[in-house]
Each structure stands twice: as C-alpha cells, then as structure tokens.
C-alpha cells in the first residue's frame, strides 16, 4: 500500500523520495558493513597463527584498539552526516540558501539575471556551512583519536590555521573554475556538454601540474633529498625502467601526523618523487631522541655514520625497503595504471556531462527540490551529479575499488620482478606496524572498501620470502 501511495504522488515527489530512500539505503548498507568489521575488531583479540611471525601481540592490540576507535567514530559521524543531509532536503535547505545568496547579490544591486554571481555566493555559503559543521568532527578525530593513539603531531593553532588556509585555497580554485564552467554551459549551445567536459579535463591537467609545486608547499615544507646513497639508488632505480625522474623531495609530514607515505607526480618527461619524512628511518623526527622536530641539515648525508642513531628504530624503512616501496609505486607507472585511471575518469566525466545535457531541461527535477520558478544551472549540476547519479556513482566506486586492488597486486608483482620481494615484504610489515593497520578484515567489508588488498593477501602473493 505504501508503494502504491508513493506511485500515486506527482513525479517530482517520487524523485525526491527516491533520492532520500537511496541515500538511506546506502547509509544502512555501509553501517552494516562497518558493524561486521567492528565485530572482527572486538572478537579478534589474539594474533592469528598465520600472522604470528609477522606481528607482535603488543602492536596487534594497539592497532585493534585504534581501528575500533576509528570505526566507532565513523559510525557516529556517518549518522550525523546522513541526518544532516536528510534535514537539509526535508526542510528545503538548498532553495533557502539559494534565496539567501540572491538577497546578498541583490544588496549589491544585482538582479536574478546575474545567475553566475548568485551561484558563486551560494557555493561559498554552502562550503562555509559544511566547513563549520564538519569542524567539531575533524577536531575530535585529530585531537582525541589520533592523539590518543600517538599519531597527531599538530597543535590546535596549527590545525586551525591549516583549516582556514585550506578553505581560502579551495575558494580561490573553486569559484573561478565554477564561474567559467557555468558560463560555458550557458553559451555552449547544443554541444555545451563537450565544451564543459573539455574544460574540466583542462582544469584537471592544470591542477595536477601545479598542485605539488604551488599548492602543496602552502601546507607542508618540501626539501630536496640531499646527495647520498639513497638519492643515487633512487635515480638508478628510475633509470633502470626509463622513468623520467627530475627531482626527489622529502616532505615534512611529521608536523601533521606520524602516518607515512610516498608518491610520484608530474606529466610526460617531468616526474618527481615525494617521500614523507616519516617513511625514512634516518629522517623521521620520531626516531630522534629528545628532539621531536629536529631538522636534518640539507648538506648532511643520510648515511648512518654521520650521526649515531638509536639501534631500535621506532619508525620508518631502511634504504633497501624504501627502494622496494618505490619499485611498487613505479610499477603503477610502468604498467600504465596512472594513465588507465585518467582514461576511466575522463570517460566517466564525458558520460556524466552527456547525461546531464539530456536531463537539465527536465523541470520536474528542479520542482522536486522546491525550485518551482527558476532552474539555475549550478543547482541542476548539483541535483543531477549528486542525487540523480548516486546509484551509478556507488556502482562505479565499487568497480574502481576492485580495479585498484588488482593494480596493487600487479605493482607488487612488478617490484618482485625487480628482485625486491624480500625488501617489499619487510617494508609492508613495517608500514602496517607504523600506521597501526589491523591485518584481519571481514571479507565483505574488505571487498567493498579496501582499495589496497589486506596485508596477508599481499604477503602471500609476494611469496613465502624468508625474512631476515
């Protein structure tokens, strides 16, 4: 009967309730998966036999409690965010904010014909709202959970300055890009979706090109890796597979967190590698007794002779392990994973713009969200991309997670083919330990969420390499 009464409703009401219903369906599915994984965290209190040689019971317990805290936090923040989104829709938050943006532009003597200006004010207010409502959750995550488990390295002042900087930088990119996109859609005629897609492609390429040189340094300090054994080895590794490496940087990630990482970026013949200081045994401030943020002089060699280090390293990988990790990362490049991901993302983007072109003229989509008199382009983009495409986005996201896991196995195999299996084996164990990754996963949770295969699966795929 309930279904019948829903189908008796006008089309716009059906659309509205379908969007709301799907959103809660996804939320409940995610909550069920997280519940399954939390049950694993609660019940797996002893190191499973197959992990006995890999992980000690103290680290296992630490990672279990860390992941349990994160999962509990995820439950509450997810519930809040779903409830907030539902209330915004039910109480007409989107048309209300659009009207507020209209009254702001009207104060400057700009009427409804200045739709792009009104859209930018709307966007700024919407991002400000989400930044403010998200702040308490972000503070709790950083200063309660990450702090409790020894990862947070930030002061409150640093955190808030960072948040303001992030907001300003986002606006500086978001507002001009959006205004140009809306302008292109307005003047593009019948083929506007092709021009809009080409414009977003160009913006993506520009951002990828300038991000590491101009945007990332606003938040973190990048230092060229000093001359020495590690740098020479990295250059030799890159040369052995014709990777066009131009620079190697160390980023001071330890000011923010003790989690570790490495990545490469750049187009064509201009590739750079970035290593987090927390990844490097000889650089990690956490390994320097009594001086948590001691800086490594630029001219100092990274060899162990230059400064006596404590024997028991608390964090990071040694040079052969770092080379194995980079062998894995460069494997992504050599096997064309990066290019494949860009192609998939652009095909998806083109498809979405094409469907947007078909749907943007449907008045009922706007009426469903209480836009009875006007059909602003930005609101159309929001309704179609965020709400109408959400079932498709969920499916695509799952497929990309499956593909990503496959790529990770291939990159591991590539590092193995370079003779780095033993080093990668020990590096994966160290990184799992440093980042308190929990090595036991529920199969369904893992299948849906893990873009990287679980540790045990990766180690098995590397083969039964004898550890030192």
From TrEMBL:
Biological processes, Gene Ontology terms: CAAX-box protein processing
EC annotation from Swiss-Prot or TrEMBL: 3.4.24.84
Record-annotated Peptidase M48 domain positions: 225-463
Membrane topology: Multi-pass membrane protein
Catalytic center residues: 329, 412 (proton donor)
Residue ranges crossing the lipid bilayer per the database entry: 15-33, 87-108, 120-145, 166-185, 191-212, 342-361, 381-403
Location(s) in or outside the cell: Endoplasmic reticulum membrane
All copies of domain CAAX prenyl protease 1 N-terminal, residue ranges: 37-221
Protein name per the record: CAAX prenyl protease
Source species of the chain: Tetraodon nigroviridis (Spotted green pufferfish)
């Amino acid at each position: 009967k309930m279904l019948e009464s829903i189908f008796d409703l006008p089309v716009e009401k059906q659309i509205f309730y379908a969007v709301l219903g799907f959103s809660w369906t996804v939320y409940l599915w995610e909550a069920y998966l997280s519940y399954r994984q939390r049950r694993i965290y609660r019940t797996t209190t002893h190191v499973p036999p197959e992990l006995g040689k890999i992980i000690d019971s103290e680290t296992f317990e630490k990672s279990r409690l860390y992941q349990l805290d994160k999962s509990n936090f995820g439950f509450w923040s997810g519930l809040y965010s779903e409830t907030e989104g539902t209330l915004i829709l039910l109480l007409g938050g989107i048309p209300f904010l659009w009207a507020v943006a209209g009254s702001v532009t009207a104060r400057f003597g700009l009427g409804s014909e200045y739709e792009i200006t009104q859209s930018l004010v709307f966007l700024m207010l919407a991002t400000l709202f989400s930044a403010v409502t998200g702040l308490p959750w972000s503070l709790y995550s950083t200063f309660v959970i990450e702090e409790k488990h020894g990862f947070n390295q930030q002061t409150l002042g640093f955190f808030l300055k960072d948040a303001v900087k992030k907001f300003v930088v986002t606006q500086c990119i978001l507002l001009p890009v959006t205004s140009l996109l809306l302008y292109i859609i307005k003047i593009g005629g019948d083929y506007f979706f092709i021009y809009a897609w080409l414009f977003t492609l160009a913006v993506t390429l520009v951002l990828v090109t300038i991000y590491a040189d101009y945007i990332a340094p606003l938040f973190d300090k990048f230092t060229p890796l000093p001359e020495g054994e590690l740098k020479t080895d990295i250059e030799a590794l890159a040369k052995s597979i014709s990777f066009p490496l131009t620079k190697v940087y160390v980023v001071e990630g330890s000011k923010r967190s003790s989690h570790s990482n490495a990545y490469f970026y750049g187009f064509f013949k201009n590739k750079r590698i970035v290593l987090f200081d927390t990844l490097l045994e000889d650089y990690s401030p956490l390994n320097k007794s009594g001086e948590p943020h001691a800086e490594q002089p630029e001219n100092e060699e990274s060899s162990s002779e230059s400064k006596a280090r404590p024997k028991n390293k608390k964090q990071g990988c040694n040079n052969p392990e770092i080379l194995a990790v980079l062998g894995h990362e460069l494997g992504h490049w050599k096997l064309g994973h990066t290019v494949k991901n860009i192609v998939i993302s652009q095909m998806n983007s083109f498809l979405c713009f094409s469907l947007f072109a078909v749907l943007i003229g449907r008045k009922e989509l706007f009426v469903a969200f209480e836009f009875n008199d006007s059909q602003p382009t930005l609101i159309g983009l929001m309704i179609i991309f965020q709400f109408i495409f959400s079932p498709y986005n969920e499916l695509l996201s799952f497929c990309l997670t499956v593909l990503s896991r496959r790529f990770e196995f291939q990159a591991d195999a590539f590092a193995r083919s370079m003779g780095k299996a033993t080093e990668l084996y020990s590096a994966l164990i160290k990184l799992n330990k440093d980042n308190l990754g929990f090595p036991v996963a529920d199969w369904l949770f893992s299948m849906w969420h893990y873009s990287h295969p679980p540790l045990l699966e990766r180690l098995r795929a590397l083969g039964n390499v004898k550890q030192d």
